[in-house]
Amino acid sequence: MGRSMAGHLIDAGYNLVVYNRSADKAADLVSRGAAMAESPRAVAEQSDIVFTMVGYPQDVREVILGQYAKRPGVLEGLRPGGTVVDMTTSEPALAVEIDAATQRCGGTSLDAPVSGGDIGAKAGTLSIMVGGDLSTFQRVQPLFETMGKTVVHQGAAGAGQHTKMVNQTLVAAGMIGVCEALLYAEKAGLDVPNVLRSVSTGAAGSWPLSNLAPRIIAGDFEPGFYVEHFIKDMKIALEEASRMNIALPGLALVNQLYHAVAAQGHARSGTQALMLALRHLSGG
Amino acid sequence: MGRSMAGHLIDAGYNLVVYNRSADKAADLVSRGAAMAESPRAVAEQSDIVFTMVGYPQDVREVILGQYAKRPGVLEGLRPGGTVVDMTTSEPALAVEIDAATQRCGGTSLDAPVSGGDIGAKAGTLSIMVGGDLSTFQRVQPLFETMGKTVVHQGAAGAGQHTKMVNQTLVAAGMIGVCEALLYAEKAGLDVPNVLRSVSTGAAGSWPLSNLAPRIIAGDFEPGFYVEHFIKDMKIALEEASRMNIALPGLALVNQLYHAVAAQGHARSGTQALMLALRHLSGG
């Protein structure tokens, strides 16, 4: 996703310095004019705004804060007045921690996770949920708008991540709904594509029903969005919910079922592989 | 809903004979030209096609089969070649039973539950999911199309009801998703309407998010669709799932939470009142 998003910045005329652990994944960007740096620090030394898009919160810590000492982090090279924008789906508390650390380095930060998956990243139609200082948001907004069509400032540092957790709570429910509904339809002997015609446009309609149910029916469990990344997101949401002292029984159930999906060998399948675990649960 | 749907038939030029336990609820239809009958049997004696739209499966049994002897049922007055169309959300097995009984009386039947609620009934935009003989469906189709914009034949008797169960399984998941997401957003201190701007159009988007979340935010728990009727629907779906020997853990959880909604005094509120039970669960 990071590659597609960086490509939109190049298309819009921005000068890019890029870094990726697997350099070959950045070759396309380099061929389009991006300079390759040797570390996150080196990117920051040459950039006014540094975007990060990695996998897990510990990767965010390493890349931005330089923790675990594998390679120098962004903050070690931050320019005076530089801005760090983390677009990874990560922990709200980590976004607050990064914001404080960035300010101590004389810069500013935003947390800006996205929704829309690989397809949205390629098409530039992501929803970008932004936390952090408003004036910093306004300065970065034109760059966000090359990558997404829904760009909304949600509040102070961490608010972007919290908003993404709201998004993922909705996605989790959508997935269990689609998979249980399809399992029912299959077992009832219905013509499943025909059933979708009846249920897609009314009160049962949803993005996963329109976009993932057809993949499931076609037996396509390739990743748009990895099961293991979704498990990471739900873990963060449930930890935050626990910290806020609220019960989210639906999300907790879906999280457990996705652990079953991963246990059955589908951690690197798409989230629609929940269907396989549900069928398995019922002996299929 | 039945009144709105009957109104569309009048608007399309059909002659109607109507019956309702509370006669005053049919006064509007009578003023628009419908004749009032004294029993379901009397409706059938004067009609080629008899539509029923009642509350629970036992009401369907009484009105069509004439069981429990409160008043004569539709089949006692069915004309030769007459058709019974039950639009109540009811049990698939009951639809099969009615179909057999109707055939023994020399007629035909369809099960044709709807989705779209009071708003869809008024606007004539319902999704109508139809089970039964195809040629009977084709004969009734023009009448369905006065009431709905998505009219699909789903298979033999009972297939309409099964399709509605698929629909309600999706709705159940949608409701828990919306309510848990809103609870998270509230507790995280986010600007909830602003959060909806970020999450409504992407992978988290759904009909209940677009249509019921704004009502919840506004504190509006008035019924579009009653909690007690939704509990009835989920009970049927779970009994069918049990009969088909499949596990639907998400639907079972939502069903339990809706029993909590009812237990807290909201059986006659709208389904969005799940939010109240979730807040209550977390001490709110």
Structural commentary:
The structure is a homodimer of 284-residue chains. Chain A has helices at 2-11, 27-31, 40-45, 57-65, 92-104, 117-123, 134-147, 159-187, 192-199, 207-211, 213-217, 227-243, 249-266, 274-281; strands at residues 17-18, 35-36, 49-52, 83-86, 108-111, 114-115, 126-132, 148-155. Chain A is elongated, with a radius of gyration of 20 Å. By secondary structure, the first copy, chain A, is α/β, with parallel strands linked by helices. Chain A starts with a helix and ends with a helix. The relative contact order of chain A is 0.09. In chain A, the strands form two sheets. In chain A, strands 3, 4, 5, 6, 7 and 8 form a six-stranded mixed β-sheet that branches. The first copy, chain A, has 14 helices and eight strands. At the A-B interface, strand 7, strand 8, helix 8, helix 9 and helix 10 of A face strand 7, strand 8, helix 8, helix 9 and helix 10 of B.
